C-alpha cells in the first residue's frame, strides 16, 4: 500500500493518516499524510509570499506552457487516471473515462480563455471632467486561492478549481474530499511534472476540522472555491475573512416536466441516464419528474424497466453501469428515505433495496407525498420520483416549491410550452428535451437560492479569480 506524503513544501505531517478505501468493497487503496495548524500556516505563508512578490509571478507564456504540458501528460495517462478515479470514487469506469476526457478538455479550455480574454476600453472624453483621458482595463490575479472539493468527480472538479487558478497565476491550496484525494494528488503531481513550481499548488489533507476551517477563514485568502454540501458551504462562507470572495456549488433536487406531447422514446433513456448516472450522486441529477397525468404512469413504468436493466456492481469493470454509493452510511440513508416514502403512500415500481453494504438498486417511486424526504430534499442516490400533474402551471409551481434552484428540464414538442417553462422555472439553466445533468465545461453552471453562490464553468471561474484593473492615462494629446 502506497503512502502519499504531504504536498506542502517545508511542512511536517501531523495527525492521523487518511486511509483511502474503495467504496465498492472497502479495500484499502492508499494512505495520505495529514497536517494541522502548523501545516496551514506554512501553506498560507508560502502562497501569500508568492502573491506579494510580484517579481515571482508566472508569466502568461509560462502558464500556457505548463497547462499544455499537463494536458499532454494526462492524455498519455488517461486510462490509469480513469481507473484510479473509478476505484476511489465508485463512478463506473465507462463514466470515469468520460470524466478524464472532460478534465483534459478543461485544462485545454483554460488555455483557450487565456488566449482570448482581454480588457476593455472605458469611454472617456465624454464631458469636461473626462476630457484628455484614456481608460482601459486588464486582468490581474486576485491573490491566494483556497479550493475545497467534493468526492463525486474526483478529477474533473479539481481541474475546475485548480486549473483556473494556475491559468490566471494564483497560488492555490486545494483540499480534496477525504474519500477521494488520490485523483487530486495525481493532478497536482502532473502540474509539477509539467513545470509548475511546487509552491504554486499545494495539497492540504487534515484529520482535524478546526485546521480546515483555519485554512479557509484566514485573512490571506483572496478567493474561496467550495464544492460540497450546502450545510458546510454556507457555514464556511459565514466565517470568511473580510474581503475574501467566494463561489459555492451545492446540490439540488432537479425537476423535470414531461408534457403530454413529449417524445417518450427519446426522453426515457435520457431521464434514466440523468437519474442513475453515478448512482445519482450528482448535484443536478434528475430527481423529481412531473409528468402529465395522461402519461405519468407510462413514464414511471418505462423508467422502472430501464432502471431494472442497469448493471450494478464493481465500478472498475467495463460492463458496470451503476456503481456504489460513496459510503455504506449513505446506503443506509437512501434506504431509510425510500422506506419512509413507501410507508407514506408512494408506489415502489423498481429497486427499493440495498445490494450488499455498498450499492443500492436503481429505484423509481410513483407519486410520493409532498412531505416525504424524497420530495423535499436532495436524495444524492439512485432514486427518481415521478409525480402526475394536471395543469402545466401546477407542475411549475411544484417544481419551484423547494429552496433549491439549479438546472431543470422540460420535454415537449411545443415551443410555447418550452418557453413558458424556461421563463417560469426557478433555475439557472433549463434544458429542453434533455436531462438536467447535461453540462459542458465552458457553459455557466450556477446554483441559485440554497444551491449555491456564483457561477462555475472554466471561463467564469477564471473571471472570479481575477480583478479587472483600471488604468487611466491623462494626456494633452488625448
Describe the fold and architecture:
There is one protein chain. This protein is α/β, with parallel strands linked by helices and 478 residues long. The protein has 2 domains: 2-250 and 451-471, Aldehyde Dehydrogenase, Chain A, domain 1 (3-Layer(aba) Sandwich), CATH 3.40.605.10; 254-441, Aldehyde Dehydrogenase, Chain A, domain 2. The protein has 15 helices and 23 strands. The mean pLDDT is 97.
What's the short version?
The protein has 15 helices and 23 strands. The chain is an alpha/beta fold and 478 residues long.
Main attributes of the structure:
478 residues, alpha/beta, Aldehyde Dehydrogenase, Chain A, domain 1, Aldehyde Dehydrogenase, Chain A, domain 2, 2 domains, 6-stranded mixed sheet, 38% helix
Instruction: Give a quick account of the main beta sheet: strands, pairing sense, barrel closure.
Output: 7 strands, mixed
Beta-strand portion reads: 15-25%
Would you give the CATH topology of the largest domain? Aldehyde Dehydrogenase, Chain A, domain 1
Q: Sum up the overall morphology in one term.
A: globular
| Residue share in helix | 25-40%
Rounded mean pLDDT is: 97
The CATH architecture of the largest domain: 3-Layer(aba) Sandwich
